[in-house]
């Protein structure tokens, strides 16, 4: 057997494991519905109080498309919104107050105090929101990003999910924009790779070590957050959602993570540069700034995603039957596992054939994230270092 044939056999074996034994990562949600809404009437104990916390830094461009959808939720129980203005220079706070005029829910706009050393900017803003919400003593805090829009009834659906399935954390990965060509190429793969790292079924399984959340929409039981040590326990976390999921689950909290259609990001990423910046900001942090993990990640991407198409094409050209068959089989399994995410986004399953190319892009983004870190420009967000 040639080296290429052996590599192709190893790759297809890896894909068979991933498809059959990796927590069903390629399915769009644990139940297959892909949504966050929950049916049913009034919860048995009545509707608990919820305070939505929105960290916002220079978000005036997107707030008109998102904040009104949160303020218009008409949640049946006590509900209000706290927007934390995190040092904005574009009039975010004043705009938020104007958008709240006549809304169904109350809005409080608070200015974040000076960030303490060692805190990540977003986590500190979230903490400031929790402080402002404390007087309400809500049963749940909904951490949500400024670019997230909610369809009617979405917040009630999140609460039903938490109460009905006894969850301390209910998180929804928002529907991302796929309006442009680059978004259609990169965004479904971003969701796919995230699910591969953190299989949603394992996140929701009690006793599993896999823990994560999607930062755009995280409904958290306040007592569970307090029991876990509060946001101070993850104060320096650049990837706040995964850190919060891990913190809660390690403290015994029950968690749930799914895709959603009624929670939608309105932030566009029209150019490759925009998507590149989104990934490189935290990719190397995800690898704990380890050169060894970086090398292992790039090598793993090369074997799993690069070898199958190379083996299939080169094997066919050279008459190497083992490489051709194993490469084609690995490529086929790989593509099949991306089809559910593509369908979730309303895109053609044929796009899955290009997954190796997108994986190569992500490998390049990860390497660039490391390069920027060592150049002293890692973790930059809206003109400042993300961790103080």
TrEMBL record:
Record has Nucleotide-binding as a keyword: no
Keyword Metal-binding attributed: no
UniProt keyword terms in alphabetical order: Transferase
SUPFAM superfamilies: Nucleotide-diphospho-sugar transferases
Protein name: Glycosyltransferase
Superkingdom to which the source organism belongs: Bacteria
Record GO terms (molecular function): transferase activity
InterPro entries (UniProt xref): Glyco_trans_2_hopen-assoc_HpnB, Nucleotide-diphossugar_trans
